[in-house]
Structures are given as structure tokens and as C-alpha cells.
Write a structure and sequence with these properties.
The complex is a heterodimer of chains A (114) and B (112).
Chain A (H helix, E strand, L loop, with lengths): L4 E3 L2 E4 L5 E6 L6 E8 L3 E9 L2 E4 L8 E7 L2 E6 L8 E8 L7 E3 L3 E5 L1
Parallel strand pairs in A: 2-11
Antiparallel strand pairs in A: 1-3, 3-8, 4-5, 4-9, 5-6, 7-8, 9-10, 9-11
Chain B lengths: L3 E2 L4 E5 L4 E7 L4 E9 L5 E8 L4 E4 L2 E6 L4 E6 L8 E9 L5 E3 L3 E6 L1
Parallel strand pairs in B: 2-11
Antiparallel strand pairs in B: 1-3, 3-8, 4-5, 4-9, 6-7, 7-8, 9-10, 9-11
The chains are: A mainly beta (114), B mainly beta (112).
Chain lengths: 114, 112
Amino acid sequence: DARVTQTPRHKVTEMGQEVTMRCQPILGHNTVFWYRQTMMQGLELLAYFRNRAPLDDSGMPKDRFSAEMPDATLATLKIQPSEPRDSAVYFCASGLELGHHTQYFGPGTRLTVL
Amino acid sequence: KQEVTQIPAALSVPEGENLVLNCSFTDSAIYNLQWFRQDPGKGLTSLLLIQSSQREQTSGRLNASLDKSSGRSTLYIAASQPGDSATYLCAALYYGNNRLAFGKGNQVVVIP
């Protein structure tokens, strides 16, 4: 049963610290997405990769967030420095071509920045 | 602006009743529309995907319809069960966009 995996599942850190979240997409999927979910804003797209190339990161605060895919089995989302307003659940999702196929979501990383 | 709206934010129904969830989108130029389910503390699970050329999709007790001209999609769950309690989100993919536009969801409680 192929699944998207994310680590860590929970992270509590102090303001100013660096946070790195990792995602392993489903093997064979060529699109990877990072989302952030909060009660107020709902689900927001932060970054979108296709064949490991970043296609859309307009939803990401560029000064502190960065997203990469060092290889096809790993996507990372980094926040440096973290701020309390970054507290949210961060989801990774993967899929085949966006137009005709759905996305498969990981379980999320719940981030709390104190 | 391409927005997706789901009202009400929360609802409760007695077990056995049919559930009807509505989703509105502001721009009819959608490529597809999807319904997802989210359980507390979990990620989203895709339920149904309707391409713009389709009017509806069915899977078991679930049926989703799409009316582009009115900017609406409806998710229909027949004979609801307590296990259907979850948050249901709809998401539209617009032409020329790389991103899904998500509604904020309907939080459903099915009362035994």
C-alpha cells in the first residue's frame, strides 16, 4: 500500500530556530506539493514540484521558507528562522500529472513555534 | 479571484439520513473538481474527481455532481453512518493554474 510519508509528525521549537520537514513521495509520482493548513486560512499551497523542478512557490514566504527536492524520493521544506505565526500543520502530497489525477496526501507535520 | 466556498462550516445529521454537501466556485473555467475527506489529525483522502466534461461521479454511497454554469458541486452521501463523520473539502483546478483552490470544508458529525 503506497503512501506518502512525512517526518517528523510533530515538532515543537522556539522562535528563531531552524525547522526542516521531510517528505517521501509515492514512488513513480512526478508531482510533489507542500501545503500549510490553519484554522483561519484553511489549506494553502506553498510549493509545487514537477519532475523535481520547482514550478510554483509563489505561496511561500521567500525570506524564511525554502523547498527542495534533492532526489526523487525526498522533498524538504525548511523554515529559517521560524516564527510563532508559522505554527500550522504542513502537508506534503504527491501525484501524477495534475490535470487528470488526484493528489495523495501524507499525514502532516504539526509544527508549534513558541 | 478564483475562490471556493463551502457552507455551512459544520453540520450534524442523524445516522441513516442522506448527507448533502455544497461547494461553490467563482470561475466556471475549471479543469476539474475534487472532493476530499479529512479525519482529525490526518491528511486528506481523495473521494471523487470530476473532470470538467463530466456531470457526476459515483463511488459506492457517494455521488458528486458538477454544474459549471452555476458554479456548483454537490457531494451526496446516502444513508449516512457514524464512520462518515469527518471534514469534507472540495477543491477546484482552474485552467492555467498549477494549484488546487480549496474550500475550508464542511465538518460533518453523524449522530448514532
